[in-house]
Amino acid sequence: MIADRGMGEPISLGAALAAGKKVPPDVTDLLAEDHETVLGWFDWYEAADNRTLKKRITQKICTALRAHMAAEEEIFYPEASRTSRDEELVQRALQEHRAAQGLIDRLEKARSVDAEHADLMRELRAEIEAHIDEEENQLFPEVLQSEMDRYAVGAAVAARRVDRMLELVAPRSTKAKSEQNVREYPVMQISKDVARHYFIMGLKNAHATAKNGRKMVELQIDRLERYPRLKEKLESHLREKDEQLERIERILEKQGEKPSAIKDAAMTLMANLSSATNAATGDEVLKNSFATLGLAKAEAAAFETLILFGQAAGADDALQPLQKCLSEERAMAAFIEDNLRGTGMGFLQLESQG
Ligand SMILES: [Fe+2]
Ligand SMILES: [Fe+2]
C-alpha cells in the first residue's frame, strides 16, 4: 500500500502522479509490487485459452518489464551500488537484464502464438523468477541496510517507470501508430468515414460537456471562500476548461466543422439547473464535489474514446491536444477524490460551528 487513505493522502500512485503530489514509495516496496504484478501476468498468460489474449498479455508483460528494467538500470542500480558498495550484485543483475531483454526482443518479434512462443515465455518466466529472487533476497536486504534514501529513489523510479512506459506505448510517429492500431484490431474492417463521423459527433459532445463543466465550476467558485484549496484548484481547472474548449474548436475547424450551438446551450442549461439545485441545499459543497468528480471521470472517458476515434479517422494532429485534455480531467478527478475526506471534514467542522 503506497498511501494511507485515512490520512487524506492519494490512494494510489497513479492518483498521486496525476494530481502532481509527492508521496514517494519506498523503492523496494515499489519494485517488489511490480515483481508480483508481472508474475501474476505470467499466470494469466498460461491460463489464457486464446491466442489473441495471449498475445496481448505478452505485450503487457514485455512493456512492463522494459519500463521496470529501465527504471532500475537508470536510477535504482546506480544508487544501490553507490550506497551498498556491492558492485558484484548489481553487475550480475545487469547481466540478467540483458538475458531477459534478448528474450523480450524475440517475443515481440514473434509472428504467431505457437509452441515456440510458449517456450520463450516459459524461458522468460524462469529468467525473471530467478532474477527477482536475487533482487528481493540479496540486493534489497543490502539496500535496506544502506544509507539510501529509499523514498527519494522510489519517487524517481516511479516517475521514470511511468515515463518509459509512455515512451513505449506512445506512437513512434502518430501516423505509424494509428496504422498499427488499425491493424492490431482487425476484427472487421473499420471505415474511415464512419470513424470520422463519430469522431466529429464526439468532439461536438465533448465541447458541450466542457461548456457544462466550465459553467458548473464557475458557479461553484464564488461560494467556496471557506474551502481555499478546492477553490484554488477549481480556478485553475476553469482556465484548463477554456483551453480545452479552444483545443476542441481548433480540431473541429480543421475538420471543416464547428461546435453544435444546440448541444452547447442544452448542456449549459443543465449546469445551471444542477448548480441551482445544489445551491438550494445545505451540503452544496459536497454535492458539487460529487458532481464535479463524476463529470471529470465522464469527460476523461469521452476523451479516451475520442483519441481512438481520431486515430481511426486519421486525424493525427488532434491526438496530442486530446491527450492533454484527458490528462487534465484525470488529474481533476484524482484531486477531488483525494480531497473528499478533507472537504467532508471541513464541512462538518464549519457546520458544527454554525
Ligand atoms: Fe526488479
Ligand atoms: Fe531487475
Describe the structure.
This protein is mostly helical and 354 residues long. The protein is 82% helix and 0% strand. The protein folds into 2 domains: 5-170; 192-352, Ferritin, core subunit, four-helix bundle (Ferritin, Up-down Bundle). It binds fe (ii) ion (FE2) (2 copies). The site of one fe (ii) ion has 6 residues, from α3, α4 and α5.
Topology:
Layout: H1 13-18, H2 27-47, H3 51-84, H4 87-109, H5 115-145, H6 150-169, H7 174-184, H8 192-221, H9 228-254, H10 261-279, H11 284-313, H12 316-352
Helix content estimate: over 70%
- How many distinct beta strands? 0
Annotation field: number of helices: 12
C-alpha-based Rg, rounded: 24 Å
Q: What general outline do the C-alpha atoms trace?
A: globular
Structural class: mainly alpha
Low-confidence stretches: 1-11
Strand % is: under 5%
Q: Domain count, please report it.
A: 2
Q: What are the distinct ligands in this entry?
A: fe (ii) ion
Helices and strands, in order, run as HHHHHHHHHHHH
Summarize the structure.
With 354 residues, the protein is mostly helical. The protein contains twelve helices and no strands.
List keywords for this structure.
globular, 354 residues, mainly alpha, binds fe (ii) ion, single chain, Ferritin, disordered N terminus
